[in-house]
Amino acid sequence: MKTFNDTVQAAKSLESLCDILNSYEREISLSDACDLCSLPIFGKEPKNTMEVFSWNDTHMLIDNGTALEGDDWVLVERCTKCGEADFACICNS
Prior knowledge:
The chain is of the alpha+beta class and 93 residues long. Helix content is 20%, strand content 13%.
């Protein structure tokens, strides 16, 4: 039987991963249903991964909610100069 974690690990893109996480129906907590520290990645690792769960070359996946319970996962753009998320970018300092 395919588990929710199997579905998460089989995501083919960051956008798909975000959709999968947001579709989670709370039978148990999301953090118990899948390993949030081992989500698939799809590009070059940013220097600052604080609050970032996965990434590709243009976006990062963050939990925009107050708890890791699903349906608040969003993609934020990476800075085209430094590759960091907007909240970690130092280019405009």
